[in-house]
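User: Reviewer 2 asked us to show a designed sequence for the structure in our supplementary figure. I'm pasting the structure tokens here. Could you produce the per-position amino acids so we can include them in the response letter?
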């Protein structure tokens, strides 16, 4: 059995679920990448994924990767592949080329050079040359040029796998089939359907969500209705193996055809219902997926039989499907009311491109995911429809738009609250171009800008986190409480939040040692946020720190950019977000060291969230100095971000000013001769020892490491870049 290396591409945000799906198919060495998921397996596995994957766009057979810069080097790299073994003579092909270099700046030029190499190989062997067909080629060549490396492969899919063949007209702004499948997968529908749960869409449109749910519940391969795949024209295609895999899928479909499952859809547009019925008929699911023309206000839980549990999933109007923007918040609020009143005990999933509209639902989301439907970002909101999740109407000050209320007057602001609100608005106007340009969703909006209101206000994907600095002893307690109330009220009004309960509020004080790990409560309420290519869990309530240090955002991006092919070491790793960036950037391995079991568990949860392997990216619980003194390996990239002070139980006392020379000596002993170490500290008035600058190459990168949202406080941290002098051998 020949083992190949493959890449399955998918929409952004779907990779973590695709990795799970491929693992269930039997894929080995599964690694999530920015463009999708890499894995190993035989040809039969690739056929099975083309037929069965509900989440992938394409399956690429990897042929090789080569360093290139110029067009000639690109041609020579393509000549390394035995193309007649893949491209039959006289057939048509298309080169799908993406990327650029200093010399290869145009995708058409890059595709042309690869095509020339393929044609020249056929001519040299006296074979009929392939022709070019960009619309319906017999075989597709996959080519990606990134960071001076060209990756070449065969696209075994042909047309994107999300096109199942059952939907001819998706209506306005249709939801891609694999995005619908990802939303269902995230809600654990494949498992819950086997447990007898029902599936309902009260605004079904073309019924993509219902049909994908039915295919999952009835064990029907999503590619069974497709007429062709990319491997049909591939020279090494094994038709007999493919026929066997397809026959097995047919047998499974027949075996599950009698499974009873409740799937219903409703829509107020009769034309949408008719289009949906046509889609249902093409799949032969008329007896499983039932539709009725019914407005949202008229939808109720079915009463023909007891349905105590189920999934209500809906893709309501948004974006280019919006119609009148003013009509949407009430629509979403009615949807929330329906879920709360008619479907208690169920679970709800709402897909929307507008988070503000998601808030207008009036229910608390238990989980949030983010996908890309084409170029449009979609938020997938999950709701536990229990009695504890109380519905709030718009008249109860639910959010419509930031700083706006619907059907009621804004709460009366104190003079101090109004001052705070105006400062927040001013700060956001200043930051908005940078936020939008860099796609920043977690940032500092306010940091004691007004001395009387001494607090830091951070935004975590629409959630407010307020950390009050302890007032001086000269300030009476009553004055401090009044100022905090003004601060919260001003932030509340700025964000349009219904109550202070929607805001995480903490009193921040200087902590030593174990105090930095102090718990404030026990909500265990973690929020998934995004930063660049990674996702991270933050906790806005239970700890003084949230799990994500916002001021280190540039440093983490440097690590992501420099990590490819390197062994990364993260010392005092905290929740391991820097390691996630290194992994996403292509680090060969990583080691993250921290003394806290809490934060190591958090790090492991972050790894799992992003689909990274603990075998490749290990966490070590240990005192950093003790561990460094005994470790014998070398690392190419190191991040060292120690606490200012520590007297934690089980560790030696630590003071970054007094102990940084010894700590750096231990860390630099583990740095490879060509490696880079980033050293950062939040200790105010810290001074780097002259012996450090005398012993190693040291560059102060503090200014460039301070992000725009911390520009008012340039002393938030200091940062240096260290390297070994050339020619120095380490122990």
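Assistant: Here is a per-position design you can include in the supplement:
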């Amino acid at each position: 059995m020949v083992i190949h290396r493959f890449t399955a591409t998918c929409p952004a945000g779907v990779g973590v679920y695709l990795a799970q799906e491929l693992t269930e198919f039997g894929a080995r060495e599964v690694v999530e990448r920015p463009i999708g998921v890499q894995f190993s397996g035989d040809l039969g596995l690739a056929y099975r994924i083309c037929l069965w994957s509900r989440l992938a766009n394409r399956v690429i057979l990897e042929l090789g990767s080569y360093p290139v810069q110029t067009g000639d080097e690109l041609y020579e790299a393509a000549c390394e592949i035995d193309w007649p073994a893949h491209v039959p003579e006289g057939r048509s092909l298309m080169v799908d080329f993406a990327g650029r270099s200093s010399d290869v700046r145009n995708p058409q030029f890059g595709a042309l050079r690869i095509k020339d190499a393929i044609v020249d190989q056929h001519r040299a062997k006296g074979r009929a040359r392939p022709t070019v067909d960009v619309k319906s080629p017999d075989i597709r060549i996959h080519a990606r040029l990134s960071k001076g490396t060209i990756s070449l492969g065969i696209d075994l899919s042909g047309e994107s796998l999300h096109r199942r063949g059952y939907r001819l007209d998706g209506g306005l702004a249709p939801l891609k089939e694999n995005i619908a499948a990802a939303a269902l997968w995230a809600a654990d529908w494949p498992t819950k359907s086997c447990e007898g749960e029902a599936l309902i869409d009260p605004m079904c449109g073309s019924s993509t969500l219902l049909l994908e749910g039915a295919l999952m519940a009835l064990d029907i391969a999503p590619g069974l209705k497709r007429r062709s795949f990319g491997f049909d024209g591939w020279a090494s295609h094994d038709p007999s193996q493919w026929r066997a895999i397809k026959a097995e899928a047919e047998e499974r479909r027949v075996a599950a055809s009698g499974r009873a499952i409740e799937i219903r859809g409703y829509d107020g547009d009769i034309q949408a219902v008719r289009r949906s019925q046509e889609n249902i008929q093409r799949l032969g699911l008329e007896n499983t997926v039932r539709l009725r023309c019914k407005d949202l206000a008229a939808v109720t839980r079915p009463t023909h039989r007891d349905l105590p549990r189920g999934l209500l999933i809906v893709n309501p109007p948004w974006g280019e499907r919006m119609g009148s923007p003013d009509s949407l918040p009430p629509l979403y609020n009615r949807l929330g009311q329906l879920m709360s009143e008619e479907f208690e005990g169920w679970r709800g999933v709402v897909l929307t491109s507008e988070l503000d509209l998601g808030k207008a639902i009036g229910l608390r989301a238990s989980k949030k995911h983010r996908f890309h439907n084409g170029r449009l970002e979609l938020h997938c909101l999950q709701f536990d429809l229990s009695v504890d999740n109380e519905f709030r109407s718009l008249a109860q000050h639910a959010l419509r738009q930031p700083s706006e209320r619907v059907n009621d007057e804004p709460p009366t602001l104190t003079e101090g609250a109004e001052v705070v609100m105006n400062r927040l608005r001013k700060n956001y106007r200043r930051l908005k171009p940078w936020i939008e340009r860099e796609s920043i969703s977690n940032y500092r909006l306010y940091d004691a800008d007004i001395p009387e209101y001494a607090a830091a206000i951070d935004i975590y994907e629409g959630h407010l986190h307020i950390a009050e600095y302890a007032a001086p002893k000269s300030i009476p307690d009553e004055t401090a409480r009044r100022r905090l109330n003004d601060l919260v009220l001003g932030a509340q009004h700025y964000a349009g939040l219904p109550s202070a309960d929607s805001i995480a509020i903490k009193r921040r004080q200087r902590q030593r040692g174990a105090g930095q790990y102090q718990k404030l409560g026990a909500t265990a309420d973690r929020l998934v946020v995004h930063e660049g290519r990674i996702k991270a869990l933050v906790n806005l309530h239970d700890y003084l720190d949230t799990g994500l240090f916002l001021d280190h955002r540039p440093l983490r991006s440097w690590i992501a950019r420099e990590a490819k092919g390197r062994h990364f070491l993260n010392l005092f790793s905290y929740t391991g977000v820097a390691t996630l960036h290194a992994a996403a950037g292509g680090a060969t391995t990583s080691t993250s060291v921290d003394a806290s079991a809490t934060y190591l568990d958090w790090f492991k949860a972050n790894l799992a969230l992003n689909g990274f392997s603990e075998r490749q990216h290990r966490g070590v619980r240990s005192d950093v100095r003790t561990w460094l003194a005994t470790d014998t390996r070398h690392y190419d990239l190191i991040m060292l971000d120690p606490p200012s002070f520590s007297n934690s139980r089980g560790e030696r006392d630590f003071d970054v000013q007094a102990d940084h020379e010894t700590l750096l000596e231990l860390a630099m002993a583990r740095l490879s001769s060509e490696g880079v170490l980033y050293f950062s500290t939040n200790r105010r008035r810290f001074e780097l020892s002259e012996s450090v600058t005398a012993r190693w190459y040291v560059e102060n990168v503090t200014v460039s490491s301070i992000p725009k949202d911390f520009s008012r406080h340039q002393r938030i941290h200091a940062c240096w870049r260290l390297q070994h002098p050339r020619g120095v051998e380490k122990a």
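For the response letter, you might also mention the following. Confidence is low (pLDDT under 50) at residues 319-325, 397-410, 509-524, 727-731. The domain at 526-723 is CATH 3.40.50.150 (Rossmann fold).
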